[in-house]
Amino acid sequence: MVKSNTFHHGDLKRALYDVALSLLDQHGVSGVTIRAVARAAGVSHSAPVNHYKDRRALLTAIAQGQFEFILNEIETSLNKLDKLGIAPTEQKDRIKVFANAIMDFGFSYPHRYQLLWRADLIDHEDPALLVVMDKVYDKLCFEIERGMPDANVDKDTVAVALWSMAHGYVDMRLSGMFSPLDDTVIDKPRRYAMLELFLTVLT
Amino acid sequence: MVKSNTFHHGDLKRALYDVALSLLDQHGVSGVTIRAVARAAGVSHSAPVNHYKDRRALLTAIAQGQFEFILNEIETSLNKLDKLGIAPTEQKDRIKVFANAIMDFGFSYPHRYQLLWRADLIDHEDPALLVVMDKVYDKLCFEIERGMPDANVDKDTVAVALWSMAHGYVDMRLSGMFSPLDDTVIDKPRRYAMLELFLTVLT
DNA sequence: GAGTCAATATAGACAGCGTCAATATTTTGA
DNA sequence: TCAAAATATTGACGCTGTCTATATTGACTC
Predict the structure, then answer these.
(1) For A57-61, what is the mean pLDDT?
(2) Which of A152, B27, B50, B62 maximizes the CB count within 10 A of its CB?
(3) Does residue B53 register a pLDDT over 90?
(4) Which residues are CB-neighbours of B39 under 8 A, at least 6 positions away?
(5) pLDDT at position A153
(6) For residue B142, what are the CA distances in angstroms to A76, A147, A168, B69, B98?
(7) What's the average model confidence in pLDDT over B43-68?
(8) Min CA distance, B78 vs chain A (Å)?
(9) Cβ of B35 less than 7 A from strand D
(10) Helices (H), A10-54
(11) CB B168 within 8 A of CB B113
């Protein structure tokens, strides 16, 4: 279906998405301009409007795609634990999966991660985006519920607190806080210690 | 020293700062353009360059000012606790001061708060900015050290974890996550519960 | 006081941006 | 076959940050 040297591109919508993602990784979100994306895709600066009504729509689509990726990573990790036949006492590991998925993604794709929370650039009311974000949140609540069925703590509080800590840590480190970003020597043990610290509340 | 109707403004640097802060509160950081600030200050679009070398410098100065405000809030709250002659067992309250200062500021001045972490817009290497950020961090570490002198946990880990949680919660809520932003009915108890949850590790 | 120099402000230009309107081309389907 | 819909182009608008050249003012020296 993909054509070249024709007036019609063939699958421009997909091409725009891919090119935008590449520009995002290379130059950050400020490099993802409608015109730059169009240039890189080899079309005129007004061509994208037929597929994404404006810059916001394009960036929202990308954010949605990234959340789907994260959700998929989480499910993959949980499935691995399933196959290992994890003991109930190790339910903590299932909860760690969420924090680690967020942090791994954030440090692997810093510009993509930062885009996810830019309310001025993406539409957090977008139904498709809401669906996938809710899926992640609900999954986290489910695992917390399973991990502390009779603890005297509000499960939502634990979910919000854990996600907040994971997000906050990534976000602040990506802004240069705490230690240089390439300092994985510090990051790995600290992540481990932070999660252990947090999960002591689940005893 | 302030003059009007003259070629020289008198205290344009201060005026630019104030106007920029006002525009920031009203329209978010995208409303703080060099030209809009100049317009609102009643000078030409090129006048600001004499006082802030570019947009980044102006926004960095604002970020520094806000961190100084937050630091001041923290010190004020701690002093209040001092005068109450707080018991050692209530050292937790001194630690809560930091998280509450961050959250209070974030929800009171959402646009200012979001600016603080925009590495693409402000210069996190700026010496004056680094100084005030370090002051907050060091103060937090000091209080944690005081609160758990012989606990078997790394103090930096606790500091990073707490700040991460506070920042992450504000940042995500400002992006529309968890609940509508004006829902203080949910926020207050949740903040309280989150902090209590977190501080159980300090027993 | 006169003269000089730095500080400060202005005006104009440039390229880049998002978006809109008018137009052109291609595909689709009746 | 032919009209309508989808897709792409060109050009324009006002906005942006920043640069250069120019003008005005204030402060300091003689």
Answers:
(1) 98
(2) B62
(3) yes
(4) B45
(5) 82
(6) 41, 34, 21, 20, 12
(7) 98
(8) 23
(9) yes
(10) 12-27, 34-41
(11) no
